[in-house]
Amino acid sequence: MRAFQAELSKLFSLPGIWLAVLIGAVAPAVIAALDAIAEKEAIIAGVSTRLPEMGYSGLGLGVQGVIILGVLAVSSEYVAESSETGGGQQMTTSLTAVSSRLHFLLAKAGAVTVISILLSMVAILTTVSATHLILGEYTPAFEGSRLAGAVCYWTFTALLAFGMTLLTRNGIIPLAVLIINSSVVSFSVLLHKVTKLAFYLPDRAGFEMFMFTSGSAHTPGTGSLFESYLTPLTGGLVMFAWVAVLLMLAAIVFRRRDVAA
Amino acid sequence: MRISSGRRITPILGAELDKFRTLPLIRLTLTVTFILNIALTAAFTSVSLQETTGTQNTLNTGLASMGYLQAGFIILGILATCSEYTGGQIRTTLTAMPWRGVQISAKMLALAMITIPAAFIMAASGVLYAFIMLGDTALMTEIGTVIQTLAGATGYLTLTALLSAAVGAILRRTTPAVVVLLGYYFIVSPLTRDWLPGYLPDKAGYYMYTPPSVDAGNILTPMEGTGVAMLWTLSLMAAAILLYRRRDA
């Protein structure tokens, strides 16, 4: 428990985390607002097809905040001090204080999980209000189960970033991969045209948890990105499986590897 | 000690090139970018082969991965300047080369000397792959257009790398620079396509490698696009040099 508190205190004292919190709270609301502005005209004209997605598109594409959170939580430990002050890494100190690597990892993953759950709730709050503000009376009802799916998606994404950084010990690669992949031109968009297996990629499977309503069930297999392929529960389980496998792998590597980067 | 600037520049350029040559992350970035680019081009080509309607354009298919390819060059540019600030290498650099303006300009020049061949090889290999795979089914493009487009793509990637290096020199920290640039190029820019004017660096640069004949809706000609993108890069580089000269290292 004390290790967990220590990890929380470490995270909150990183300036980058506050940037992540700011982005996490603002980005989905802005994306949802832009999307809603574009959609409002279609609604008024009566040709809207994407009404059930309103707001959720922001939550789906605005995950950069938790990506930064997950990456920084690990990469900050591996940043080497300047050679003039000994060139040490925070990781050495952390593992001296908490010598069980598994405990250290659990505490850190716990801290990341807690912060990303809180952050996703803030994001839902801002996104829902932004959507209400712009769409007014047209706003669709936000269902609790889908919002819970969005919270899961954010937390899993943060843990994916956490696990990837633990393997690479450097923030650049996971940041680049995950930020590019969270954009509208993600790899899964491209790959689902090549193979149906792309629907089982973590981000695409995670989308199933909240992007689609049961009412908007399309004919499966047509292969469009914004069409449901798995049920929300399966999608969540698939993404959870990715997270679990990645974290297990990262934990094994982390336990066996020398501290030095 | 007074040394004429002409005799200064060659050893400084050599030193900067040496740094790039020996940085493992630069090498890793280039290799990974190359491999990923080929893999993505393969994916785009196979998508293009599945689409039976209409004729495919080898050039468009080969360069379809440009959107992703630029990420590698953004990271390359950031690494070039931000690597100085990890572990205090900057103080060694400035002790050896106290002429800050010359030093950072030489760094940019060295970066361009690396990115131009790298960008050309990557863009050309993508087009070549598409050419081999699509074969006869594709629409034949004149060799002149191919060369023009490849030159545009190379220029765009180099300008992007230089722009990223300038932003990296201004921010001096790798992670914020990566977040800001990738966030802009991949999140902000695609989402605000309809709201922002076409004079931002990535949109202007897009016209550098888009064959003008593809759609009539091109706002800028390749030359105009090059000019606008170059203006962005040069002004950011000027800002970076100015700040670098004035700021505590």
From TrEMBL, chain A:
<keyword id="KW-1133">Transmembrane helix</keyword>
<keyword id="KW-0472">Membrane</keyword>
<feature type="transmembrane region" description="Helical">
    <location>
        <begin position="172"/>
        <end position="191"/>
    </location>
</feature>
<keyword id="KW-0812">Transmembrane</keyword>
<feature type="transmembrane region" description="Helical">
    <location>
        <begin position="233"/>
        <end position="254"/>
    </location>
</feature>
<feature type="transmembrane region" description="Helical">
    <location>
        <begin position="12"/>
        <end position="34"/>
    </location>
</feature>
<feature type="transmembrane region" description="Helical">
    <location>
        <begin position="54"/>
        <end position="74"/>
    </location>
</feature>
<feature type="transmembrane region" description="Helical">
    <location>
        <begin position="109"/>
        <end position="135"/>
    </location>
</feature>
<protein>
    <submittedName>
        <fullName>ABC transporter permease</fullName>
    </submittedName>
</protein>
<feature type="transmembrane region" description="Helical">
    <location>
        <begin position="147"/>
        <end position="167"/>
    </location>
</feature>
TrEMBL record, chain B:
<feature type="transmembrane region" description="Helical">
    <location>
        <begin position="227"/>
        <end position="244"/>
    </location>
</feature>
<feature type="transmembrane region" description="Helical">
    <location>
        <begin position="67"/>
        <end position="87"/>
    </location>
</feature>
<keyword id="KW-0812">Transmembrane</keyword>
<keyword id="KW-1133">Transmembrane helix</keyword>
<feature type="transmembrane region" description="Helical">
    <location>
        <begin position="178"/>
        <end position="196"/>
    </location>
</feature>
<feature type="transmembrane region" description="Helical">
    <location>
        <begin position="146"/>
        <end position="171"/>
    </location>
</feature>
<protein>
    <submittedName>
        <fullName>ABC transporter permease</fullName>
    </submittedName>
</protein>
<feature type="transmembrane region" description="Helical">
    <location>
        <begin position="108"/>
        <end position="134"/>
    </location>
</feature>
<keyword id="KW-0472">Membrane</keyword>
<feature type="transmembrane region" description="Helical">
    <location>
        <begin position="25"/>
        <end position="47"/>
    </location>
</feature>
